[in-house]
Amino acid sequence: MKLTFWGATRQVSGSMFLLEFDDEYRVLIDCGTDLERENNQETPKSEYGIFPFDPSLINLIILTHAHIDHSGQIPNLYKEGFEGQVLCTKATMDLSEILLLDSASLNQKKYKAIHDSKKRSKKRKDIDSRELYLERQVKEAIENFVTIPFEERFKFKDNGFVTLYPAGHLLGAAHVYLEFWENNQKKTICFSGDVGRKNYPLLVDPHKIPQADYLITETTYGDRHHIDEDGKAEEILADVIQKACIDIPGRLIVPAFSVGRTQAMLYTLNKLYTDRGFTPIKVFTDSPLAKASTRIYEKHVRQLNKQAREFNEENESLFDFENLVYLESNQASKAVSNHSEPCIIISASGMVTGGRVEHHIQANISNPYATILMIGYASEHTLGWKLLNGERKELSIAGQKLPVNANIEKIDVFSGHGDLDDLIDFVKTQDKTKTKNIFLVHGELHTMQNFKNTLAEVGYNQVVIPEKGQTFEI
Prior knowledge:
Strand order of the largest sheet: 6-5-4-3-2-1-22
Oligomer: single chain
CATH superfamily of the largest domain: Ribonuclease Z/Hydroxyacylglutathione hydrolase-like
Number of strands: 22
CATH class of the largest domain: Alpha Beta
Helix content: 25-40%
Largest sheet: 7 strands, mixed
Distance between the termini: 6 Å
Structural class: alpha/beta
């Protein structure tokens, strides 16, 4: 069998791994969008369109979880000739549908931009129309999703079985464990997807996986620990709110991904207000996608951790509380800038790359009574990265240079990725004398190199950092 790495190699996003069995059956593990490719860099030309392989020859996709850097190219795979099914959990299918439809909506706007530029005889080099799928391609893809429960062995081909184990990280997220027989020999391989962290709000801890011959693991936090690793989410958030909205009559702006982080924030706020009697400050959730994904979390309460299930039973709601307002329209979003009382605004995107949150930051970055709270990872050169890394005297936002007078805070208690210790624990489920290779993906190169050195210190010497397009016989 061959394993080829087509994405998330020596970078964080774009997960895409191709397994080619000896009987010519082909499985793609994840089919994600490369979020780190610069806007003006066109997709490399290929005889197969936007993919480096023939999509019509792929038999099956197995999806670890719904985030766009893992799922975002699935509609394009169908568009380019794929006719197979997508295996995942039910929650992953539900979240994937709303995320992909949201991407399709953005693509529609990009199509219009291309059309308008052609009218003006200008070429848009930052948009490759080959990658722009629309709603109909999303619906076609979702119709071919097949859901399987966690920890149930599923036969996907002759002499081939897959089992999904809870990974934490996101509702429905899974480690993918494959068993198959070639030449009368059993082989096993595990893809981590994104490894979650222990004691995360709402989500279960990552489950232990069986022994595998080959392990493919993400490395996002493979060289560092969470700064808030010993703190509880309620206590850390309560301290920030106290300083930002109570000690002074200010407003708190929280850039947060619509799926995952926003739900963890709302749940924690609900606990603060319900269990601790914290003064209910007006909370604006400014993302239609966040509202839709919150409803999906409510639908799948049984997959959440014990604490969340018990809280839901006692209070009949995980996320709804006094003074919570969902903003639907752009007009309502902009009107919040005129809200005169202390408030909390949770808005996408988490990296501050477009979206409504950019407007909120633009309107508040020069306000000394405003606090901007960064709660997760941001790619280099994004506005979120600049806020996280101290470029705070002056920032250019939407073409306007603005002085930075707002307070900038950061916490990572809401980061859904496991840190160095969590990743080591994940790898340590494997007997170092039995695992033939460990492949490192989904991380920055220097992080992978550091994690490889750390694994060597604890006895794992069979570690490989693959390059994009590199193929291994396994």
